[in-house]
Amino acid sequence: MAGGQPFSRIGLTLEDDLPMQTVKYRLFEPRLMPRRTKLDVPGWAGKPERRSDGSHEFAWHCMPFVEGAQYGIELFYPFDNELHVTKSNGRVVLSGDFGPDPGTGIQWPPFRSFGEDYYTYQLLLDLKVGDDMAVRTEPHPRFYTASDDDVPLAVPALLRTSWWPMISFVVFKAPPEGRTHIFRPGEPFMQILFLPAEAQFDLVPMDEEEAAEREMRGRRIHASRKTLGKESTWTSSTNTVFDGTYRHILRAARAKAKETGES
Q1: Whole-prediction pTM
Q2: 152-to-43, 102, 190, 197 alpha-carbon distances in Å
């Protein structure tokens, strides 16, 4: 509840081959429109050019990027006018028209500088996850594909929202002087991932036997690349050679995992 106005309540289900995780959310601003991140083609992920000789290479051609980009949810800029973020004389400058204070009791305008190099946005988004899960803020994947370097840079932060019932604000890194980050109406401006709350792993070197097995596996993939990638090899307009070896192995690994899970 904020300013007497109830939050919207919608269930968001994250579907995966792994056991289903359901993330529930409530929000103050419906135009944030949280959803599973989608590749925008044509758009920030590239043009709809096929993987064929002479085509330009785009982000959506790369399966590791595609999977990484769609791993979380995206949020959309919910205001009617653009916000331009710059730095001048060492200070963050926020230029945008948000109109009059709506009188709901929330911070207005919803953006403000945060020290010399950062600024915040009053997000007011509640994401309820399981006790063993957490949410992590990230730049939107289009940050890595934008040629104009104008995409807002959300600062990574891990929040344990099973017991913290509201993400009040998120932090962004301001661009260096001479650059401008732009929030545009209806455009995705950040991504949120859902991860285990504790990073429970130990980093240790492989023993000789395991290292030898991995080396042999790598050599076999390399040796069979001409066969595996024969029908999918192409040379882009920048004279870069690509093939679908990784995609083919990924498809086979998924099929095997599905078959094993059903048996």
Answers
A1: 0.87
A2: 17, 25, 8, 26
